From TrEMBL:
GO terms for molecular function: 3'-5' exonuclease activity; DNA-directed DNA polymerase activity; nucleic acid binding. Residues 131-298 form the Exonuclease domain. GO terms for biological process: DNA replication. It holds the Pfam family Cas_Cas2CT1978. InterPro entries: CRISPR-assoc_prot_Cas2_sub (IPR010152), Ribonucl_H (IPR013520), RNaseH-like_sf (IPR012337), RNaseH_sf (IPR036397). It comes from Companilactobacillus paralimentarius DSM 13238 = JCM 10415. Keywords: DNA replication, DNA-directed DNA polymerase, Exonuclease, Hydrolase, Nuclease, Nucleotidyltransferase, Transferase. This is DNA polymerase III polC-type.
Length: 300
């Protein structure tokens, strides 16, 4: 007999496990398979568990007649004279992380982005026939017909590996909602002092992008806002070739907890120093594209 308990795992993993085990209660699976199949299924769980947890108990030639395994960070399986025990680990206290003002967060994000962006990336080989631009927008809401663009960030890699970056704050007619300020660090005062008019920002973006291939994560969102913004200022839409990375990731990573950019970057071991900051998100998205190209999942 084998018993597996799962918590906070992707729904796809739960469904996959029911091919061999019976789910008798939410997250609790029982079954009777060979040791080889059991071990292969455990490896499958470890590979696709995401940020969840799993514990397995099974028949074994021990004094108690069973053995168990776990992925829990606060537990460790130990052998005490042939008796399997679950040892509780003392959790290390996490120091309090002091916050910063919205303006400080924004300034910190810009500083980190500029430091990280070197003129040439030595570890990137020329694999492109055309420049590749990752695009990200920060907006005051989700509806492109009502909300406004407040920040544009873009990161470009040239066929020779040279890296370029673009960032503009956009003056907004409306006040920036407090939730957006909390998320991005951008305030209405900053936009009035440091921002440019929407038409100038879009013109500068067009000059930066030129004939590059445009990529993004959930690019449909950004394209919707760009199209609406270009219409407002009487400019023509971009005609560049585009690639949305989200559908590609969903095809290649079927067992993630979710497909938010933060989760995906963690799965691909990509660091984003300042999430919800347009330039930082664009740089991280460019790194994601490079990995997908290297893995053969994205062809430009």
């Amino acid at each position: 007999m084998i018993v597996v308990t799962l918590s906070k795992v992707p729904p796809s993993l739960r469904g996959d496990l029911t091919k061999w085990y019976q789910e008798i209660q939410t997250g609790v699976y029982v079954g009777n398979v060979s040791a080889r199949v059991r071990d292969l299924l455990w490896e499958r769980i470890l590979k696709n568990i995401g940020t969840g947890e799993a514990t397995m108990a099974y028949n074994a030639a021990t004094e108690l007649g069973y053995q168990f395994r776990t992925t829990r960070k606060d537990r460790q399986v130990v052998d005490y004279d042939g008796i399997p025990l679950m040892m509780h680990l003392k959790q290390q206290e996490v120091p309090v992380k002091h916050g910063f003002s919205s303006a400080a967060k924004f300034h910190k994000g810009m500083t980190m982005s500029h430091r990280r962006m070197t003129k040439y990336r030595k570890d990137v080989k020329p694999i492109l026939s055309k420049p590749l631009v990752a695009l990200d927008l920060e907006t005051t809401g989700l509806d492109s017909t009502k909300a406004e663009i407040i920040s544009i960030g873009a990161a470009k890699i040239m066929p020779d590996g040279q890296l370029l970056q673009f960032e503009k704050l956009i003056r907004s007619v409306d006040l920036v909602p407090s939730k957006i300020t909390e998320l991005t660090g951008i305030t209405s005062e900053q936009l009035q002092k440091q921002g440019v008019e929407l038409s100038l920002g879009l013109e500068a973006l067009s000059d930066f992008v030129k004939d590059s291939v445009i990529i993004g994560y959930n690019l449909e969102f950004d394209e919707g806002f760009l199209t609406e913004a270009l219409r407002k200022v009487g400019k023509t839409e971009f005609t560049n070739s585009t690639h949305d990375l989200m559908p590609i990731v969903k095809t290649t990573q079927e067992f993630l907890d979710n497909y938010r950019l933060t989760t995906v970057l963690e799965a691909y071991q990509i660091e984003n120093l300042d999430p919800h900051h347009a330039l930082s998100d664009a740089q991280a998205t460019l790194s994601l594209a490079e990995k997908l190209i290297k893995n053969g999942n994205l062809v430009i």
